[in-house]
Amino acid sequence: MMNRCTSHLLILIGAAALAVPLVAQEGETPEPGAVAEPVPAQQQVSEAAPVAEQAPSLEQAYQREFAFLQGQKRDLERRLAEFEQSSEADRQALEADIRMLERRVVELTSRGDRLDEQVFESERSVEAARDNVNLLANTFLQAEATIDGWQAPALESDEVPRPDDIAAMFETALGELDRRGAVRRVDGEFFLADGARVNGEIIHVGRIASYGFSERGAGALAPAGEGELKLWNEESAEAARALAAGQLVSPLPIFIFETLSAEVEKKGAKGVFETIADGGVIGWIIFFLGLLAAALVILRAVFLGRAGASTGRILDDISDHVRRGDREAALSVLKKRQGATARVVAAALRNLDRDREHLEDIVSESILHESGHLNRFGAFIMVIAAVAPLLGLLGTVTGMISTFDVITEFGTGDPKLLSGGISIALVTTELGLIVAIPTLLLGNLLSSWAERIKDDMEKAALRVTNQYAEARPVADKGEA
Amino acid sequence: MLGELLNDLRFYFEVGGYVMPPLVAATVVLWFAIGYRFAALKRGNIRPVRRIIQKYPDGFGRAPRGVIEKAIDLGLQIAGSRHGDLRRRLDDAFWPLERSINRFHKLIMTIVAVAPLMGLLGTVVGMIETFDSLGDMSLFAQSGGIAGGISQALFTTQMGLAVAIPGLIVGGMLEKRAAVIRLELAQVKDILCTRVQQGSPA
What we know:
The complex is a heterodimer of chains A (480) and B (202).
Chain A: H1 2-23, H2 39-52, H3 58-146, H4 163-181, E1 183-191, E2 197-205, E3 209-213, E4 218-223, E5 229-231, H5 237-244, H6 272-278, H7 280-308, H8 311-324, H9 327-336, H10 340-350, H11 356-374, H12 378-410, H13 415-479
Helix pairs in contact in A: 1-2, 1-3, 7-12, 7-13, 8-9, 8-13, 9-10, 10-11, 10-13, 11-13, 12-13
Chain B: H1 2-15, H2 20-40, H3 49-55, H4 67-81, H5 86-102, H6 105-136, H7 145-199
Helix pairs in contact in B: 2-6, 2-7, 4-5, 4-7, 5-7, 6-7
């Protein structure tokens, strides 16, 4: 812009300078409004002018020149203003242009974005449609495999299935569902409990349970493998007959199965020894410990029974003799009796004449002597009761170790492999508890029995001495 | 209401397996023993021992109502007959009372200790069933399968604890009462002996 302006000015000034020698009289006219640059040129030109002619009057020439230059100046100013105006208008127009263009760019960009999005979305929907077609094809395949009597339409590689096909498939599936959910009766064959195959009526309750009814046997049916059925148990015979007769039974004995292809084995109750064998070596150790504990408990019970049963009767038998002061007769009665109490009482009787402390020492000594016999096996029984659960725990840990060994080797895929170690773990715990519970119970009861017998012996000796002491003054009086 | 309760109990009994009969038997024995002890541990008189003896220095003149009254009655009779060594004769005479006080305590505590073990045993049995059915892949077998095993395991534990906890609490309370009565019997002996010694010179 600036360059254009200055070049215009230069041209104008040049033209003016050329016109000066022709028209002007006075060369020395500095232009007040002119730009600084052209001044030297004008001066050069106007220096030449006075030399050329000394016109009629300097004053006139100057005035003419001045007027001319004034006119020139006005003209230039006007043109400058015009030019400024026009350039301003140009600028505005151009700016408007730029703004419009910018708006268009923005518009176009957003449109491009929208188009991109549309492209993306349509790609996605194409993808989804392809997935759906695949899914449909798979559904058709699956339906063909699982629904009896339904043929999938033959499709070319990229052909889209028709709605009719789909509707037909769903209709067939619905029919099949109805058929399988229904209770239906058919004639068929099944196995009896003894393995004989019989013809009879089979009542299918959906596909999860069946009842069989025949001349030779009836009842709930269980899968026998490969689509065959077998009689589950005889208890359900009544229900099966009633069902065959069309009546409803409540409660309905039912054997629910998931599939006919796998045979259901009737699990026989495991014997005691099989269970112990499941527990491994530790199982057997616990078992023998249990036997030992049982034997000891029985032996101890026999000892205690012998030692303690007769306390009351002994006292009854001898009290008459003692009251009479007849020690010899009492001792002979005691001699006939066996047992700890009899021995303690006899010891007390023999020493009745000694002073009290001495007598008490003798009685407590003989009780101590008997208590060795009474306590026999007691501690050992309690040890077994304490050790058996610990052995069970040991078996648990051993079983867990073997389980983890199996896991290390084969992974956790097959639960059957793991169940061996787990059954060792659990069976030993079970055996430990089975041994510990009765042993603990009986051992505690036996030791409390033993305590009671010792107590009884002490009291029996006390009673004998008391009776004798009661008798003596009477006897003394009688003698006196 | 009662029928429902009975039904629930029968269900628990069936679910719990072979642990249940001994557990139930243990419960019956436990509560019989607790009942016996409860009946045996009646003092019969709420006054302190010394006061009773002061109030009835010559016997009650009626049938005694509880252990302490019985002991005092017996002790007064023996103290009245005055021959032999009184303390030893009292020891002898109170022996049946002390025996009936201590009776069944050990049994109660043993059953309380054993019942949770039985519950644990049932738990293990149930777990065995669970793992068996895992091993057979017969997860929902007719005999119960996994869920049956687990419910057996939980029911028996619950039952064991349900038997043991009240037994423990009541048994502990009864033992405390028995200890008090034992002390009071000793007090009765002491009082009677000192009374005779004071009284005999007079």
